[in-house]
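Chapter review: from sequence to fold.
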Amino acid sequence: MRDFTSTFFNFDILREVWPLLAEGLWMTIALAVVSVPLAVFVGLLIALAQEARHPVLRCLIVGYVDVMRAIPPLVLLIFIFYGLPFLGLQLSEYPAAVLALVVNGSSYFAEIFRAGLESVPRGQREAARSTGLTWAQSMTYVVVPQGTRNVLPDLVSNTVELVKQTSIASAVALQELLRSAQIAQGLTYNPTPLIAAAIIYFVMFWPFVRLVSRLQNKTVTA
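The token string follows.
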């Protein structure tokens, strides 16, 4: 038991590498705080644009969503960071990671919002327009709030997945939590930093997992 503890739960090593893990945790939070709101906003805009009746615009949007959902976010990040410089656009590690997360995440949020908007009865839209509201006002005050509430569990679940994907930033040497744990493991030759990172991820995401479960139960019983 002592050997097991010293290998996987060595508190002396944890105290030694904690500043490195804390630095990586803050970078993970910094990525999530910027990427998630942007991905949600862009996804909502895409879903609203799909309401347009212009066939060319709808085809472009459907193509964007399908392609971005098909490309793994890691591949997308590598293309942005290493490929865009050949086109004259060079981004540093943090903006490249944010862009990859937003582009990939927005495609999933767009589909979730689209399903939510379609779940609102057509009569709600017609009733809003009959009161004198413009299309933008009816979407803002009537359709979007109802549609968002209908897909709230999926929105929260996708947010959790997007935060998890911040670990791809290690591919461009951005020192987020997982990358910091890997560096700490290499310095100490002990897996304790990786175990600590896994526990940190669990503590971060467990409340959101429970929230998704509660929202799904409410949706079923409603």
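Two observations follow directly from the output. The CA atoms of residues 115 and 151 lie 8 Å apart. Residues 2-221 form a domain with the MetI-like fold fold (CATH 1.10.3720.10).
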